[in-house]
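To: structure subgroup
Subject: Chain for Friday's discussion

All,

I'm putting the inputs and outputs inline so they're searchable in the archive.
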Amino acid sequence: MIKDHLNVAPKLAQGVKAISHHQSAWANTQAAWRFLDNDSVGYVQLNLPLMQAARQELAASESSYGLVAHDWCRNNYLGHDCKLDRIQMSHDKDVGYELFASLLLNANTGQPLAPLGLDLKAKQGTFRCRDMEPQEPMPHLEQLVDRIEWQESLPLQKTLIHIIDREADSAPHLRQLTGVKWLTRGKKNTSVKYDNEFISLEKLAAKVKSEVKGVVDFKGKEAYLFVGEAEVVLQRKSERGLVNAPTVRFVVSTLCNEKGEQLAQWFLLSNVADVDALTLATWYYWRWSIESWFKVLKGHGFQIEHWQQETAPRIFRRLIVSSMACVLTWKLYNDNSPEAEKLKPFLIKLSGRLTKRSKPITHPALLAGLWVFLQLTEVLNNYSNEEIEMYKSAMSSYFGQSV
């Protein structure tokens, strides 16, 4: 079934594909339906290959760290009236299932390795890849703390750096993560204690001296990266009575064009002490990998919001299988061996995708090429050279030239 998900699906044909059994495609569809609807297929067992991939890929990385990006993703099923266990996620038309995912990244390259936790929130509760039964829903930040504590208990042998967007800018929850390394983006109006005074991150950024660290790509154009840092106390203005608040690092990362005009700015907070400020800024930049993965799930690959499975458990099982297909694609993308370097351009050519010269290999294009290659090998295994030549000759008559 993992091979059957190694493809880029269009919106109107997002069902499970069938590589083999050319004469029994309907039987393949029925088998997939039974598998996804089988309550004996537990989420924990189904998630074991993902956990194994995470351990293996992290152990193979040269860094002593592993980055874990956390984020939420709403999957809208407004027109899917057959899904009776949908929930309202914000407004009355935003109904469906909410995904909370963690993605393990290589700390040296920022490339995705494997999902390290999946939750799907529905009317029955929250389905989790580490539990057999749905759990009581929790607020986002409590869910985040619970996920991080579970990940820290895993035998991964390397220090995890948990990276979260501005939603995690909550001093009480960050202070709760004792013994855990984290990096989060702060809101500009968030206050911290600096030089015994409370100040917003935006005003503090204006005081911090920044140095240019290099030229980076920003929306297809070159931009100059400035990085500066200061030491602050993780305490809000509303918490004046708090004692023994921890000291953390404040890092301001700014992008400017050649005229000196500011293009973007990020205010980062972290308790990681043994890397420089540029590394922290780079690590946060790599958090975008989880957003790219969501794009593959929703639009550039699997079309999850168009899946026809009628319950959250079925959707969740298929999501785990699709994640395995992503892991295989990432593994190939990250492989720099001579064989892989020859294979990847070949798959891009098979995909028919037009990619940028600056980035000729992309995850969605690899996924599309893998599907064509698997179909190609299936044809070669089931048809003789004489049959293929006969079909080639027949097609030539329609094109008016040799194909």
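Points worth raising on Friday:
The mean pLDDT is 91.
The chain has three domains: 1-165+287-334, 183-282, 336-403.

D.
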